[in-house]
Amino acid sequence: MKTDIKKYIFVIFCSMLTSGAIAQSFRSAYFLEGVTGRHRLNPAFMGESNYISLPGLGYIGTGIQGNVGLTDFIYPYDDPSGKYELTTFMSSTVKGEEFLNKLHDMNRIRMNLDYTILGTGFYGMGGFNSIELSLRSDMNSNIPFALFDFMKTGMDQTEGTTYQIRDMRIFSEAHAELAFGHAHAINERLTIGAKLKILLAGAYADAHVNQLDVTMAGDKWQVVAQGTVEGSLGGASFETEDDGRGDHIEGVEVDNPGMNGWGLATDLGFSYQLNHDLLLSGALTDLGFISWRNVIAGKTLNEPYEFDGFEDINTDDNDPDQS
Questions:
Q1: Would residue 217 count as lying in a domain?
Q2: Apex CA 308: angle with CA 307 and CA 314, to 5°?
Q3: Within a 10 A sphere around the Cβ of 273, how many other Cβ atoms?
Q4: What span, in angstroms and rounded, lies between the C-alpha atoms of 323 and 311?
Q5: CB count, 10 Å around CB of 168?
Q6: Which of 309, 311, 141 is nearest to 223 (CA)?
Q7: 256: left (phi over 0), alpha (psi -120 to 50) or beta
Q8: Cα separation, 47 vs 191, whole angstroms
Q9: How many helices (H) and strands (E) does the chain have?
Q10: Using an 8 Å Cβ cutoff, are 163 and 154 in contact?
Q11: What's the pTM value of the predicted model, to 2 decimals?
Q12: Which residues neighbour 299 within 8 Å (Cβ) at sequence distance 6 or greater?
């Protein structure tokens, strides 16, 4: 049963990692003049022509940055059945030392998604104008080395071995954005631009584990945890039970989710043609705030407890990651 929690953590981690790797970051388009959505990176950039963006046919941008990459977690696999070509670091065919030597004391991953639902760009009012409705999501994670050490080698250690996991944090938020932009040529060399964004809050979650000590104890783990979780989602509330020391969180109930706050933001940018072959440009983007409603928060009691596995979480015995 203890193997299940490690696989559960692993599935969450791989979902975070691969979702940002399915497409190239749009930032490389900053220097490509023909790209329609370049004004997202610098509001001073004008389109070459008018355009309309429709659902499913518009701009989709993803990005991933960090000090670890997908190749640090995916390995070639010589499957006797020929069914699999790749496996993960959790596979017994990957040595713990080989995997752990690639990691850092703190492993950082940042991902973002920007999807245009509807949009248009057109010339008028002395410049280039844009109106767009988009969905945006950002995720930041700081994952300490000790967590991966525990996931990979925890089941191989003798009773009494303790893993000390510190300062782990995962933050994620999503919102809708209605943006109005205008770029204006001051003269033949200088162009300035700005955007006003109305932000419609969706949801956010912020989990911070200050301390997580896991001691191997036969068929159980002795756990001491100190951490907090905070989040906001329309219609969400904790399911709690009074255990004599306060409200113990049993789960989260969501009733009629919807817009969960609002905010404002702005983009500012410029471009200056130094000569025929050299363009100087710069921008400040997403300067603003979101005021969240219905914020819920909880924390651990920092008291030791025993964990003997999740119930009803199964893994495929034929999976090459089975260890």
A1: yes
A2: 120
A3: 15
A4: 19
A5: 20
A6: 309
A7: left
A8: 13
A9: 3, 15
A10: yes
A11: 0.75
A12: 227, 228, 229
Nearest to 213 by CA among 302, 141, 86, 318: 302
Largest CA distance in the chain: 75
Using an 8 Å Cβ cutoff, are 310 and 5 in contact?
Answer: yes
Structural domains in the chain (count)? 1
**Residue 9 main-chain phi, psi, to 5 deg:** -60, -40
What count of residues does the chain have?
Answer: 323
For the stretch 71-108, pLDDT in tens is 888 998 887 887 888 888 988 888 988 999 999 999 99
pLDDT at residue 9 in the model: 47
Domain enclosing residue 63, as ranges: 2-307
Closest CA to 177 of 269, 288, 257, 282: 288
The token pair that represents 49 in the structure block: 């022509």
* Tokens linked to 58: 């518009």
